[in-house]
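Justification of resources, computational component.

The compute hours requested in this renewal are based largely on the per-chain cost of generating structure records like the one below. Each record pairs the submitted sequence with a full structure-token output. That output is archived, and it is also reused by downstream analysis tasks.
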Amino acid sequence: AYNFADNHDVNRVASVLRNPAHLYPLHLLLFTIPGVPSVYAGSEFGIEGVKAGGDDRPLRPALASPTAAAARGKYPDLAEAVTRFATVRRGSPALRRGTYRPLHVASEQFAFERATEGERAVVVVNAANAPTRLEIPLSAGDGDAFADALEPDRVFEVKAGKLRVEVPPCYG
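The structure output for this chain reads:
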């Protein structure tokens, strides 16, 4: 599967989301769900664009350089986050080709597991505007530790069959 949030045929996702901070969890999901992620040129900077009267040129602005794209986008730190998501995916066989199993589904939080024979990744996304704590049921031994791939100094442990995690707002 080839996954994308926007392209040259539809309004740019930065113009569609009601909460622009959702660009971060959206891109995190794009790089961790099954399939091949695709980021439309400029979307990593939150560039906006809406079709008007059948004219799709606003979806394809000239972007002479990454610096020009960053200046045009409203979220210059989004590109750094997208780079981190891509780096984590590149380094994880489970995220590239592992199985998929949902673990937690709520209106503003979502967690799933991707696994290969040699690796297990648990992806947790928080779309709320406030940090959240979750206890995710997980078949793992008490004391098993999971490192946060986005912040490697953070480690979460399994206790009583639940992975206990703290997730920043609009992130993962």
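The first helix runs from residue 13 to 16. The mean pLDDT is 94.
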